[in-house]
Amino acid sequence: MLVHRPGYIDGFSDLAARRRGGQGFHSAVAGCFHEWGWNPYRLTCVKSSHSVRCMSKSTISGLLLALCLLPVMAMGAEVKSLYEAEMQVPDQTRSERGLAMSAALAEVVTKVSGRRDARLQPKVARAIRRPAQLLQQYRYRALPEDRQGELMPGDDPQLVFFHFDKKAVDRLLRESGLPVWGATRPAVLAWLAVEDAGRRYLLSADSPDALRRVVEREAMRRGLSLLLPLLDLQDQRQVSFADVWGRFRDPVLQASQRYRPEAVLMGRLLRTTDGEWQADWWIVEGKDSERWRANGVLPVEVVEEGMAGAVSWLAQRYAPLGGGSEAGHLRVTVDEVRSLADFARVEGYLQSLQQVAHVRVRQLQAGRVDFGLALQGSPEGVAQTIALGRVLTPAAPGTEPAGAGTAAVLTTDSQHYLLRH
After folding, report:
1. Strand duo 158-164 + 199-202: pairing
2. Which of these, 7, 180, 221, 267, could form a disulfide with 192 (CB 3.0-4.6 Å)?
3. What pLDDT, on a 0 to 100 scale, did the predictor assign at position 403?
4. Contact status, residue 216 vs residue 190, Cβ threshold 8 Å
5. In the prediction, which pLDDT does 148 show?
6. Please, what sign has the CA dihedral across residues 42, 43, 47, 51?
7. CB distance 254 to 227 below 8 Å
8. Which residues contact 157 (CB under 8 A, 6 or more apart)?
9. 4 C-beta neighbours (distance < 10 Å), count
10. In what order do the strands lie in the sheet with 158-164?
């Protein structure tokens, strides 16, 4: 499934999902707002100097729907289920569960580290052979209806869910010299152009195509916070199949601006006349980009390579190798801290970051707090993760921190932020 993004409202998808779940139109629209902590019907009346005018539910729903469909600024994404994996098994025997448990742990260490080769590290490989030591819980469930007609091995094929201990997995990775990439990750918008048996199309967030489910599943398996475009009238006016297929950067990036992603992934997927699949992938973030290719008999093979390539490239930027057990340090200056509640909010947020081992207060001034962070990763990667969140925003270059006599200089071991209010 696509990953939930704080700060981004996919109004069409959310509303459509609620309607498919059986909700009426008005309650579906209201449900969007209740999720954000708003009561849409509290302001049903407007008092003027002469009278009180009350709006009907239909009017309110119309106004709320218009707001629901407005994309707003995205600031990273919270990737769920990093320490979980689900595997298919032919039955509930202990031997099959053990094999599935090992495969699940291999998937988890890949997601958390962002490294394809994490499972090959000697200490990690030994843990994968004995995965029960890191396991917290497991449970079985029946295959979903859309897969029950497939030919599968075993007399009683089903799915088994595994949840591993976060602290134990993190410790294993750090002791192996691998990074621990937190749940706050860059949001990636994917424009995928597909040619299959003479049919050409772009994959959308609401596409009934089976390929969309493959893309969502592989993104989740890799810990990639992936978005697909709405492909509504606004998108269709700005970008075409030919733009994505031809890898014309400017129109694609222009159409991507409304979604505010941190990175844009373009994929060109072709099913050849002999039935095999070929894919060209291209990821862009700012001025940097990377291209790679994939081939396979099944579409899942080329999609898996696309998602794995994107995660590997992003992990090098946001979760670089931290040099083993050697701890890094980062000084963080935060302005606009106006109250004790503000202070607690900032300190709690910094402590919640996966790459931060310890937070201490260096200095307190009016409206400003200096924090010292002990890191379990690189200062560059942690600073980039902070910038993705919704709590702090980087101060404008050249601005002067409160109480400072000279302009702030942003370095890899000293960063300046403003608290969002």
Report:
1. unpaired
2. 267
3. 46
4. no
5. 64
6. negative
7. no
8. 88, 89, 90, 91, 143
9. 12
10. 84-89, 158-164, 135-141
Query: What percent of the chain has pLDDT above 70?
Result: 76
Burial (CB count within 10 angstroms: exposed 0-12, middle 13-18, buried 19+), residue 341: exposed
DSSP element (H, E) containing 279: strand 277-285
In angstroms, how far is CA 284 from the centroid of its own chain?
16
Identity of residue 288: D
The whole-angstrom separation of Cα 373 and Cα 412 is 13
| Amino acid 3: pLDDT | 45
> What's the whole-model pTM score?
0.72
Instruction: Give, to the nearest 10 degrees, the angle between helix 94-113 and helix 166-175.
Output: 60
Write phi, then psi, for 285 (nearest 5 degrees).
-140, 110
Whole-number Cα distances in Å, 350 to 49, 334, 355, 358, 359:
48, 11, 10, 9, 7
Start-to-end CA span in the chain (Å) = 31
Written as six digits, the tokens of 299 are 């579409």
Angle, alpha carbons 76-215-77 (nearest 5°): 10
CA distance 20 to 59: 23
The phi, psi pair for 224, rounded to 5°, reads -100, 125
Using alpha carbons, select from 79, 119, 97 the residue that is nearest to residue 222. 79
Residue type, 255: A
Per-residue tokens: 72? 């707003």
- Tell me how far apart the alpha carbons of residues 382 and 315 are, in angstroms, rounded to a whole number: 12
**Which of 218, 76, 89 has the alpha carbon at shortest distance from 142?**
89
Supply the pLDDT for residue 399. 64
Q: What 3-state DSSP class applies to 319?
A: coil
Question: Angle of helix 122-129 relative to helix 94-113, nearest 10 degrees?
Answer: 150
C-alpha distances out from residue 415 to 182, 370, 408, Å: 19, 10, 9
Closest CA to 354 of 379, 385, 312, 315: 385
Q: How far is CA 149 from CA 143, 154, 213, 214, 300, in A?
A: 10, 14, 17, 17, 19
- Integer Cα distance of 202 and 188 in angstroms: 16
Q: Which segments in the chain show pLDDT lower than 50?
A: 1, 3-74, 323-325, 402-411
Query: Residue 360: is it exposed, middle or buried by C-beta count within 10 angstroms (0-12/13-18/19+)?
Result: exposed
> What pLDDT is stored for residue 121 in this prediction?
95
d(CA 271, CA 94): 40
Using DSSP's 3-state secondary structure scheme, residue 39 falls into coil
